[in-house]
Amino acid sequence: MPATATLSAPQKALQKMGLVRDIDLALHLPLRYEDETRIVKLRDAREGETVQFEGTVTDNHVAFRPRRQLVVTVDDGSDTCVLRFFSFYPSQQKALAVGNRVVVRGELKGGFMGWSMVHPSCRAAGGALPEALTPVYSTVASLPQAYLRKAVQSGLVRADLSETVPAELLPQLGLREAWTLRDALQFLHHPGPDVSLAALEDRSHPAWQRLKAEELLAQQLSQLESKRERDELRAPRLAAKAGGLHEQLLKALPFALTSAQRRVGEEIAADLGRPVPMHRLLQGDVGSGKTVVAALAAAVAIDPGWQCALMAPTEILAEQHFRKLIGWLEPLLTPRSLTVAWLTGGQKKKERTEMLERIASGEAALVVGTHAVIQEQVQFKRLALAIIDEQHRFGVAQRLALRGKMNEPGQEPHLLMMSATPIPRTLAMSYYADLDVSTLDELPPGRTPVITKVVADSRREEVVERIRSQLTEGRQVYWVCPLIEESEALDLTNATATHEALQAALPGVMVGLLHSRMPPAEKKAVMSLFAGAQMGVLVSTTVIEVGVDVPNASLMVIEHAERFGLSQLHQLRGRVGRGAAASACVLLYSPGENGRLGETARARLKAMAETNDGFEIARRDLEIRGPGEFLGARQSGAPLLRFADLATDTHLLQAARALAPLMLDRFPDDARRHVSRWLGGKSEYLKA
């Protein structure tokens, strides 16, 4: 590839799109197809159809009303059609001169004045028609279709498309028909005119199935290889001993563990007792008690003299963990002259310096904080366990940085990742195939199911009345808004205006305001007032999405609920129903200009009203959004599935999952070639 400075604009655009290798071009498949293989007569065409006809130009002039446009009339012998171009070049005018025979393709519109087309494609008549459908590729502004088609065709000719899946394993790929990779790609770039367009568009055609199966196999091989590589690494062997810190913590807890917490705790303890790094995902619905499981894991690491770090995405969540862990662990650590340290970006210099010294000396056995935990100046003495909460909110590089904080040469810390967004089975089988997954599928006793109501914004007064009745009963209320300040693009009522409106509507009630731009001390003060029940209503942006625990809050109002993602709505709903009182969540929505909600927003709100089950919510979320958005930052920089669809291709995923270990063991060279072809150098990202 020539030096970047000498590249033409289309070449730079190809690089930007990641179309660098011949195989990248060969795998850049069409978005759709145009049928240029046949000519129709205008008399046989129907309105709204995209048609191609051939005729003679009978008129060509520039009109100036209602706006400047080139108007060309073409007669095909059966009827005439008027072509309109609102932007045009002199060369175009010349090519469409009166008397020229041209082939025209576009969407046909009917009307009082006869047939017309706006900005159709036109070329001189003559020459053979194409024998295959014309591919239309996704592209960018500086990369014309004609240039991209040539580049893709060249890549297809030059690419090494030799089989990487050994012939004896092919039947196990889950395919109903055997297509070679070369045949499948040739066909999908240039399908014949008689092929079913529906089978091409819904990707059910056997050629598509071959590509999906190969892509899923590459992903499974990459994940399996990273899991095996990690099994070769070393980590401290941490065992809970009789009468040790783990046992002391269990006795000191003011509640009994659920059977799910006990089971998951044992799975984690077994991992920590092995000399290879744990790489476990702890998933559980909102309020299932993940923090106490993390505390028990921390106790196992701290007992033999190691350190544990817990990183959370927001200061509010980190502080919530900090308070709980201090309450549970500090009384047990004090006799050992150990402490719990706290690190965030907004700390005063003196406090921060003191914390850094405690961490470096090993006095801080447990370190809780935000991204500040992975900053360069943070030096651990003996880090053995890293816990990452809401792991999908962190990028790959951030997780790798935390793993790199261990001082022992040749060793890695154990890694426990936590998520309150349960992961659907197909995602666990694909993107999380290299992880061991523990699931908390039981809520602690005393949790009340939350009733969810979807209410139009026009009934706002009724919602305020409901708040009054909750406050009268001594309960507290959250009111969540999507934005802090007005935006021209999103005409939303901001948190400040809502706060003022509720203050006016609820005289004598303390109504607080919380948003991400407030100084940390101010946020802390507001949360303390709400947690201490002095504040009746808390108006907030999504900073209270996770971790905030106020059992007395029994009503959650989410304004402009149609703007939120499904997992975010579920997380917010999880802030209520934490005590014994019956709790409710009101999803206030504003219909669009046409008085209706969009399809996606409607599907989200319907799912919220129908189920409280986080696993069902996650399954529907995956259906609505697809894996790319669902995964968040886990795959930052890594390829998401381009061809396979986890909702419809489960049989191919299962076949690839079963085939991967067999291929890696028996045909390791083929397996590596296969991963390289499909993932290039990006498979490293799958290892975080």
Characterization of this structure:
There is one protein chain. With 688 residues, the chain is of the alpha/beta class. The chain is built from 23 helices and 21 strands. Helices cover 37% and strands 17% of the residues. The strands form four sheets. It has a seven-stranded parallel sheet, with helices on both faces. It has a six-stranded mixed sheet with strand order 6-4-3-2-5-7, with no helix packed on it. Among the domains are: 87 residues, OB fold (Dihydrolipoamide Acetyltransferase, E2P) (Beta Barrel); 196 residues, Rossmann fold; 162 residues, Rossmann fold (3-Layer(aba) Sandwich), CATH 3.40.50. The protein starts with 8 loop residues before the first helix and ends in a 9-residue tail after the last helix. It is globular and about 100 Å long. Strand 2 and strand 3 form a beta hairpin. It comes from Ramlibacter henchirensis. GO terms for molecular function: 3'-5' DNA helicase activity; ATP binding; ATP hydrolysis activity; DNA binding. Belongs to the helicase family. RecG subfamily. Its EC number is 5.6.2.4. This is ATP-dependent DNA helicase RecG.
CATH superfamily of the domain at 245-440: P-loop containing nucleotide triphosphate hydrolases
Cα-based radius of gyration, to the nearest Å: 31 Å
The counted number of beta strands is 21
What gap, in angstroms, lies between the N and C termini? 30 Å
Could you name the CATH class of the domain at 245-440?
Answer: Alpha Beta
Morphology: globular
Low-pLDDT residue spans: 488-492, 633-639, 684-688
Strand fraction band? 15-25%
State the helix count.
Answer: 23
Strand order of the largest sheet: 11-12-10-13-14-9-15
Instruction: Give me the secondary-structure category.
Output: alpha/beta
Main sheet summary: 7 strands, parallel
